[in-house]
Every structure is written in structure tokens, then in C-alpha cells.
Amino acid sequence: QGKQKKARKYAVMKRMISLRDERIKEKDRAKVPVKKKEDPSAIKEREVPQHPSCLFFQYNTQLGPPYHILVDTNFINFSIKAKLDLVQSMMDCLYAKCIPCITDCVMGEIEKLGQKYRVALRIAKDPRFERLPCMHKGTYADDCLVQRVTQHKCYIVATVDKELKRRIRKIPGVPIMYISRHRYNIERMPDDYGAPRF
């Protein structure tokens, strides 16, 4: 009987030597990290996020009439679809004077949408709207709105976007305005503000 032929293995990688191996010269060898022992008597420093002074538990003292409402791009579009007057519907919802605020990046998003959304652009350029300048690059409005309400808790955010709502719910003391059943509703607004709860 003849010798059995062994099938050659293809694509077998050559084993690489570890950089910590003793066979490698001392200067080329990787250094083993030395762990420092923690001193039990040392004062432990840890960074705790500073809570804003305007929050008293869930009650936000900075929120009060006239309400400043940050408007999102899709909120304007959904208001047009639902045939709602933006400022009047806000006042009907909160029973107080409302100042809709629009950031430069939201304005940029509406302008980018083109000719189809020219009605939304005309509404956004309404003189009753307060224009807020943006210092950041790009026109991604969601990040800008989240950052703005984290810094200044004096705004109500008007949006229909589920992802943005989810992000804002994590920030304490920031109410959300949304559209349902052809009218504006508010979420997370304590009774003490004089606004109805739905």
C-alpha cells in the first residue's frame, strides 16, 4: 500500500510572535503596564453633574407666562397638515401668552426642504416668531434643540419627532408640546404652571 496524500491547507496564517515574548530583544519588547496601588487614605474626587437651581424636584421655576416655545421643523409641517394656526393653538393649549422661538438650524432645514414646503417657510418667517441665532456648524436641528434646553431650562419644546421626544424626556424640567387629534397637547407640565394636564 502506498502513502496517503495529505491535502494542503490553504490560507493558513503564519503565527505571529507576541511583542511580550522573551525571544524579542529588550528594546523592541512591549512594556507590561504596572498598576498603581490606590492609597486608601487619599480623598476620592468624582465629578457630579451640577443640577440647575431653577429645578425644585420636577417643578421648573423658570417656566412661566409668556411661554417660550422652541419649534421643530416637523411641528410646523404637521400644524399645516392639521390646519392649525400655530400661535393661536399654542395659546389655546396653555391659556397664556406664547412666544414661538425658531433657531437658525430649524430655519435652514425648512429652507433645504425646497419649494414643496414654502408655506412652512412663510410661517417660520412670521414676525411673531422669535429668531434664535446658532453658533454651531451644520443644520442638524435635533442636537441643537437638545443642547439648548439642557443649558437653559426656560423653553417648552414643540415637536412630533419620536426620537427627539425620547431624548428630551431624559432632561428634567423640560415639557414637550405635541399634536394629537387635531389640537396641541402638552406633556410633563405640572398643574402649578396654570396649564392643563392631558
TrEMBL record:
The keyword Acetylation does not apply. It is found in: Nucleus, Nucleolus. Coiled coil: none annotated. SMART domains: PINc. The keyword 4Fe-4S does not apply. GO terms for cellular component: small-subunit processome. One of its GO terms (biological process) is ribosomal small subunit biogenesis. Keywords: Nucleus, Ribosome biogenesis, rRNA processing. Pfam families: Fcf1. SUPFAM superfamilies: PIN domain-like (SSF88723). Residues 67-166 form the PIN domain. Gene3D superfamilies: 5'-nuclease (3.40.50.1010). Its main location: nucleus. InterPro entries: Fcf1/UTP23, Fcf1_PIN, PIN-like_dom_sf, PIN_dom. Part of the small subunit (SSU) processome, first precursor of the small eukaryotic ribosomal subunit. During the assembly of the SSU processome in the nucleolus, many ribosome biogenesis factors, an RNA chaperone and ribosomal proteins associate with the nascent pre-rRNA and work in concert to generate RNA folding, modifications, rearrangements and cleavage as well as targeted degradation of pre-ribosomal RNA by the RNA exosome. Part of the small subunit (SSU) processome, composed of more than 70 proteins and the RNA chaperone small nucleolar RNA (snoRNA) U3. Belongs to the UTP23/FCF1 family. FCF1 subfamily. This is rRNA-processing protein FCF1 homolog. It comes from Pampusana beccarii (Western bronze ground-dove).
